[in-house]
Design a protein that fits this description.
The complex is a heterodimer of chains A (294) and B (406).
Chain A (H helix, E strand, L loop, with lengths): L1 H12 L3 H29 L1 E3 L5 E3 L4 H42 L4 H9 L6 H12 L4 H8 L13 H25 L3 H9 L4 H30 L2 H6 L7 H10 L4 H26 L1 H7 L1
Antiparallel strand pairs in A: 1-2
Helix pairs in contact in A: 2-12, 3-7, 3-9, 3-12, 7-9, 8-9, 9-12, 9-13, 11-12
Chain B lengths: L6 H4 L4 H27 L6 H5 L20 E5 L9 H9 L2 E5 L5 H12 L9 E2 L3 H9 L33 E14 H7 L19 E4 L2 H11 L9 H16 L3 E5 L3 H6 L5 E5 H8 L5 E4 L5 E10 L6 H11 L2 H11 L8 H8 L1 H4 L8 H5 L1 E2 L6 H15 L2
Parallel strand pairs in B: 1-2, 1-3, 5-6, 5-7, 9-10
Antiparallel strand pairs in B: 3-9, 4-7, 4-8, 4-9
Classes of the chains: A mainly alpha (294), B alpha/beta (406).
Chain lengths: 294, 406
């Protein structure tokens, strides 16, 4: 304890260089790979372009308002899909993380490994595999048709359900792992104490386990929601034109119509919306909790 | 994800395609390794002094021709699965030119987006020949990125099919030579149509039958998709204005919104067709010949109202330091014997005269396949989309992107 104090006290006295030196790699990385690209992106977002992709900077603020008026359907759809897949991830991931943390016993690491192993293959390949799983003549669709969840001509591929399913699958581990971490570190004696005080299983879950695991759910939700909202792979492979997400619009504008300014403006608006949402979310649930979960 | 040959990631390749592709890619890597290094050594970026000695070769703001290198090397970018295994190797042996053949031209717009920042400064991209589709070749020629080909150095040029000799974007074929051509039309599964009790389709209007809802795909390639629909309406896409195309756009959009069209695809319609997700699709002829190998029920028709014809064209870049080597390559692949070897593998339409005769020696069925060797009455029905001005292109592309954006 005394040593800790001495060390903590020694830092500032030793002069200002060390903390900055420690900060430097991260800071340089941020400046080169985040600040500078963001600066160029902002410049592009305020430009106009011709068909061959040449842009000229003209302070065209209308790009930002246009990106909402032209593409609000796709923005809203993206956030809707991202929200649905985040909720599904919680519904699927929480019980699984709970099971691994409290019932996993000596198989804990194996079970966690099984959660992660599919993600050793590439994102694209996994999503393509889903095309096969969901195909119209595949076993899954046939079962769903025979129990009348889908009608006789119903399908999953190229529908909103297919896209949300793909998003959920692809981001599930990012929900399971943080929840697992926050559940894992709950002191079992707290639950025992609850039992000693005549609390039933459900009540001790509601009063002890759930509140202590909220930071994990919060961290997991952010890790799931943010990439889902900007995703374009799932919609491109598992969806149709009626399930287009904002990421597909950005991709199309960047690579097909060479409309760099509009693509850059959309990216900015998307970032801004997500930032506001995340701030509101963490404000409601508490910033410290997020820190505790990480 | 847009264009023709994104099949490397999107299409479950057939065994034949897979082996072919692996062989070609592998061959290119093995042969290409040292050649690539050599190409780097001789300078990917052209030196300033070179610009003084050369003249502008093209329209308005063209790039000056690069100073030529004496090292016999050649770097080619082509579409994936678009050559057989032996040709590159044979060419190297015959000519002594080290050839680096890469299958990295995956999408016209995407490739353009990648090279534009470099070529617009007239710097080399380390490639001598690239293979853009007609309209993209036109755009690049207008930008002055192409080197003029010396006709005298290509004796086999006389083997070029007459029908391809003077396209609107390159009237004299001064800058390009076709690599392969293909037809865009309608592919369908005849058994699935019979099972549904729907007569086999003869044109795209037939695909609006409510019984086919969600079992049809269209192409993301604007010129193919809109062109086919315009033909259906009795309009000619080779002279189309935006106003004339309006109703085609509107009807395609309506079909997409209602869910009649399941989705818009690149090459991956092949996937959907073979596993039964869809039973009819806008399709490219060469793909269908390959798919037929695994599924005898698939058929390809050029609609009575007309189909589209496209070519991918070899173009020598103005920044190339190996124009003579590039001309040697073009001459080599325009020998009917060598061209037939490529056709037997890729199964598109060869632009080279005499290929059918060569093919007949080894595989008569292939030589007479109307998708590889289309008879005159089908050829008459084929159209090429008009060369759009850059303002028109923006209008067309923006409108089509709206449809794709749902």
């Amino acid at each position: 304890m005394a040593d800790d104090k001495a060390a903590a006290g020694a830092g500032p006295r030793r002069g200002g260089a060390t903390p900055y030196a420690l900060l430097a790699p991260g800071l340089i990385w941020l400046v080169i790979f985040f600040m500078i690209p963001i600066w160029y992106l902002l410049q592009t977002a305020l430009s106009v372009s011709d068909t061959t992709g040449n842009t000229s900077f003209v302070w065209k603020w209308a790009n930002f308002t246009d990106s909402w008026t032209n593409y609000h359907d796709q923005y809203i759809r993206s956030f809707g899909y991202a929200l649905a897949s985040t909720l599904l991830c919680i519904a699927i991931g929480y019980p699984l993380a709970y099971f691994i943390a409290f019932r996993g016993g000596r198989y804990k690491n194996l079970l966690l490994g099984l959660v992660v192993v599919p993600f050793f293959t590439s994102y694209l390949v996994r999503t393509l595999a889903w095309k096969t799983i969901l195909q119209d003549n595949g076993p899954l669709v046939r079962v769903l048709r025979s129990v009348h969840i889908l009608d006789a001509n119903g399908r999953l591929l190229s529908t909103a359900a297919g896209v949300v399913g793909g998003l959920t699958y692809n981001f599930l581990p990012f929900m399971i792992l943080p929840i697992y971490v926050s559940l894992e570190k709950i002191d079992p004696r707290l639950i025992e104490a609850g039992k000693d005080l005549y609390s039933g299983a459900f009540r001790s879950f509601r009063k002890i386990v759930l509140p202590l695991s909220i930071p994990g759910v919060l961290a997991g939700s952010l890790l799931t929601f943010i990439p889902s909202a900007g995703d374009f792979v799932n919609s491109a492979l598992l969806g149709s034109t009626n399930t287009r997400m904002i990421g597909n619009v950005v991709q199309g504008n960047f690579l097909e119509t060479l409309d760099y300014p509009s693509a850059a403006a959309i990216s900015f608006v998307l970032m801004a919306i997500i930032l506001v949402m995340v701030l509101a979310y963490t404000r409601i649930l508490g910033v410290e909790e997020l820190g505790a979960g990480a | 994800m847009n264009q023709r040959r994104t099949r490397i990631v999107q299409q479950a390749v057939t065994r034949r395609q897979f082996l072919g592709g692996m062989g070609a890619a592998g061959g290119a890597v093995i042969i290409g390794g040292p050649a690539f290094l050599a190409a780097c050594g001789s300078g990917g970026i052209k030196s300033k002094s070179a610009t003084n000695t050369t003249t502008k070769n093209s329209l308005t703001s063209g790039c000056p021709l690069a100073k030529q290198s004496t090292a016999k090397t050649l770097a080619i970018s082509n579409w994936p699965l678009y050559i057989d295994k032996a040709t590159v190797k044979d060419f190297q042996t015959a000519s002594g030119i080290k050839t680096d053949y890469k299958e990295d031209f995956n999408d016209n717009e995407e490739y353009y987006a990648k090279i534009r920042p470099v070529l617009s400064q007239c710097h080399g991209i380390g490639k001598d020949i690239i293979v853009p589709t007609d309209w993209m070749a036109g755009r690049m020629i207008d930008l002055g990125w192409a080197a003029k080909i010396d006709h005298a150095k290509i004796p086999n040029r006389t083997n070029l099919l007459d029908s391809l000799a003077s396209p609107s974007f390159d009237k004299n074929r001064d800058f390009t030579m076709p690599w392969q051509s293909g037809m865009t039309g309608l592919a369908f599964n005849k058994k699935a149509f019979a099972d549904l009790g729907v007569p086999a389709p003869t044109g795209f209007k037939d695909l609006l039958n409510p019984k086919l809802k969600g079992k049809v795909t269209f192409l993301t390639e604007m010129r193919d998709c809109v062109g086919l629909w315009m033909l259906q309406e009795g309009k000619d896409p080779s002279t189309a204005t935006f106003a004339e195309a309006k109703s085609a756009f509107d009807q395609i959009q309506a079909a997409a919104r209602s869910g009649q069209v399941r989705r818009f695809t690149g090459n991956d319609y092949g996937d959907d067709l073979s596993n039964g997700n869809v039973i009819a699709a806008m399709a490219w002829s060469g793909d269908v010949v390959q798919l037929q190998g695994n599924n005898k029920n698939l058929e390809f028709v050029v609609p009575e109202a007309g189909g589209m014809l496209f070519s991918d064209n070899m173009m020598v870049l103005a920044t190339s330091e190996h124009v003579a080597d590039a001309e040697a390559w073009i001459d080599y692949v325009y020998d009917p014997k060598h061209a037939a070897q490529i056709t037997a593998e890729v199964q598109y339409i060869s632009p080279v005269k005499g290929v059918a005769d060569e093919l007949r020696k080894t595989d008569a069925a292939l030589a007479d396949n109307p998708l590889i060797n289309p008879p005159a009455d089908i050829q008459k029905r084929l159209h090429i989309f008009k060369a759009l001005t850059s303002a028109e292109e923006k209008e067309f592309n923006t409108r089509f992107q709206q449809i794709l954006n749902g």
